[in-house]
Predict the 3D structure of the following.
Amino acid sequence: MNASEHSSAAEIVYDDAASAPLSNGEAAAASAVPTLAPSGNGIGCHAGAGAMHKAAAAAGKSEILARYAADYPKGPHDQPQSMCPAFGSLRVGLRMRRTATILSGSACCVYGLTFTSHFYGARRTVGYVPFNSETLVTGKLFEDIRDAVFKMADPALYDTVIVTNLCVPTASGVPLQLLPKDINGVRIVGIDVPGFGVPTHAEAKDVLAGAMLKYARNEVEAGPVAAPRARSDKPTITLLGEMFPADPVGIGMMLEPLGLAAGPVVPTREWRELYAALDCAAVAAIHPFYTASVREFEAAGRKVIGSAPVGRDGTAAWLDAVGDACGIAQAKVDLAKNRALGAIAGALAARPVKGRITVSGYEGSELLVARLLIESGAEVPYVGTACPQTRWSDPDREWLEAKGVKVQYRASLEQDIAAVESFSPDLAIGTTPVVQHAKQRAIPAMYFTNLISARPLMGAAGAGSLALVVNAAIAGKARFDRMSEFFEGVGENHASGVWTETPQARPEFAAKYAKQRAALAKAEEAIGT
């Protein structure tokens, strides 16, 4: 079809949106309404992280942004390349019983988050409060959120309603802190999880877990609360950080000789488990980046210990730390160690791992996995984690560095790929793009989240679990070599495929458009401020 034919063709119409009446007079009147956050000015997600951060601070979010900056420090670069942080807090809420979830953010963000959550098996409805420029800058969005919360707060269905501001509402200063604390006995928890304030989805889990622990701690201080479904008759160790379901069972077996039991895993699956988590002898920061949660436990007078019972050395040191935190006699601790360490040593010896392995990921357990691999016999020259360094990860970092391992906190994709290039491992464990990069070079690779996190790591069960999949992956090197040989000569990047004339690289075009994008981003940031 030529241009003239195209212009005369009938327009394809999908709905009657184009026939909606327009009134510039009404729009002008709306713009005259005093705004909830004038400095936010309805800033859009296209404005860039810097502009949104400034807008949020000017719109009354400076305190929460300062708290996030202290709890989740960035660096050596601004932010790891990871999924939207809000996925972490969303997933925590969706896994809890009798808990409703409401998101406030751009429609595209909400779509992506709900799609990803249901992809991971959420099977829960996600509430969404839409907005436009008018409702955002006039404060009507907050009223809409408040109305939605009142509609959702049915005590027959829910114990808790969690409301999450994404980037744009946070940047515009939508004040979730002004929502009622409870409605008809249903708790209301509002949190801000902007991508420009929370670096990773792993830390966003802590944002929600910490907010819920604070709420629960205030409830406990105010008077009697509901009893947990199950409660041990022994003092418990609360386990901080998501883990494979078999791990708490194994940890409980290791604690039994000490007269202790494994307590709830935080994030919990039900609100009243939070009370049991607070009512513990000590807290084990299995995932060491739950800074907000640790603050609440410490406010409740609980001691927090780092690392985890991973491998022989890790288990011995961890049991010593538990004994010290709980005031248990060393003879009793030694008995527990003797019972656990023999089984772990046997499992490690029965299933050795031979090969050089690089480890990277964004779950927060990367250092633990590296320790276990090294005790299994593997050479691990590099560990990269998207999470920050904290004092609760120091035992693992010090142990790894003593073994000559390069530990990189807040690792970027470029650093993880550089490690693969530098060390030429027999196996690369990492995020999806790291795995892709390694496999393109005929290096066996495994996705950390689905293939490593989905296995026990603690105690004797963990000692043998990784060896099976890791050894199988390393043994697949010959298959990668055959595939690489088969596809030899088909090109790569812009020249991949079979061509009669191979495309030529035009770096000058790339440079030209890179400058245009940089100029556009700078202009948008200036407009946003």
